Amino acid sequence: MRQKRSTKILSLLLSLTMVLGMFTGNLAFAAEKDVKDSTTSFLSKTSTEGETRTYVLHPSGLTKGMSVVVPIGETAVVSWEWDQEENGYIPHINGVKMRDDLTFDAEAIAPIVCNPLSDDGKQVVGGLQKIRSVPDQEYVLAPTEETTDEELDILVGRHSPDVPYTIQYIDQDGVLVKEVEKVATLFDDEFFVSSSMKDLKDLEDIDEIEILRPTYTTINVTKDEYGNNVAIPDVVQFNVKVTRYSATRDITIRYMMGNTEVGTGTVTLNRGDPTVTIHAENPPEGYYFSPEDQSYKAEYTDDGKIKIDGRVVTGDPVITFTVKKTPPPKAYYDIVVNGEKAFTLGIGEGTSATLQWKKYQPPYVDGYPQKPAYNRLELVTGGKTYYPETVTDSDGTETNGFKSHEIVLNGKNIDVTGAYNMPQEVRDVPLDSTIEPMVIDLTTEKGDAEKYPKSAPKQMAVTITNQVPVVTGVKISHPNEKIEKGTTEHFTATVEGEHVSQEVTWSVIGTKHSSIDADGVLTVPEEEPYDIFRVRATSVDDPTKYAEVEVRLVPAGMPQGAGTEEDPYIITTAKELNAMR
Predict the structure, then answer these.
(1) Is 0.70 surpassed by the pTM of this model?
(2) Is pLDDT at 359 greater than 80 in this prediction?
(3) SS3 of residue 408 by DSSP
């Protein structure tokens, strides 16, 4: 951003005027005079004697502010000086103050020139015409031939005056509730001051607080006669309405059977105490809690709020426990499998229930292998059958038992809380295992509940014997003596022995591109380079037992016939002819 001498421009303009004069006579003379006048005016505003440099002073985020042209060898001191009447810092160049029209007296700052930068022709823009914060420094502009473009670009630094003032919040009784120290960041004769609920956090012994109108005002941020930064007034008051805390709050407990209230209770909380857990205890006479485990977490916080299970309650706090009429008492049974307790069931007096293991075939799912059948544990009552299922609670807890049927079974006076989880070997028993007994009658008579309470259940013994498979051999069926490349063949296997499954693992040996899948389907691509390889089937029950067969391949497109005198090849296509070569 360098500015050269403009005398060459004037010479060119005069030469142009003389040429025009040769053709226009008096008109050329008038044009020459106008050009001289306008050029002289331009130079008086934008040029000085000798080579110059143009400095641009601007605030952060803007590229415009003040443009100061300084001849090499000259010095311009640009500063912002406090002006009490303006209540801010006004720009000065070499001690000359900027005028009200945002321009400088050209003669007073000569040979320094301050050029317009704004669209309206004013010389100072971007907030530099009056700085309402505190300028960081004055700027001495003394260009030389070596002055760089970076040195001509000047970021004007400023900082907050941080003028202290105080906000006081006064309640309806004239009591000071809170006093907050603040700082004003700008000089302003109408500096905006607003109340804020953020100022009123963590107040003790106050239940509720409301800021009354007016919620804002203005103060004068300026300097006093001694040059000190001051706020006038330095204390601002806002009125608030407060509600004081009570020391305790009551929570009402309602005992509900459906939509009917069958009893009430009260729990008292102390303000500021830790969270307490309110359990379902002591139901009304003749009722029991359903579900048995019910609880709420409650808290009366320091800031006057009642929270139940983490949520703030508005109005009168109430919690509800659900109850049912007490059914006939239950007798309890421990199901003991192979000497170990597997689970516990409670059966109400007068209720008929049966445990049994029954063959179950899982349904086929398209795209997946068929799962084998097994003996599934079932609970039969009221003509309905229930079986263990996996359930994941909202807290991530996983169970595998009768919990998924708990609501229905509770309605039938059967307690399955002791059968939320049970061993896999009890739920799903292989068909080749022996179960003794396979059916258990749990029908409960009057008086059984007293004989077999939950604390001393009746033991029901079950024996499950797993039969170990003994594999004696594996056989593979060979579908074709020769297999044509580019085709597929289905192999089957038979596992021989006692208590064995027919599951095998298929594999191929000695191939490059051929493969066999889990169902025994062999795929031989045309590009298979080998003509002989082996297919193996390995028993899953006993991987040491397997069978192999040799596979012979013929080229893709081989004609019919064995190629013997009795059964010659029958060639009908070019592809079959090529296959013979």
Answers:
(1) no
(2) yes
(3) helix
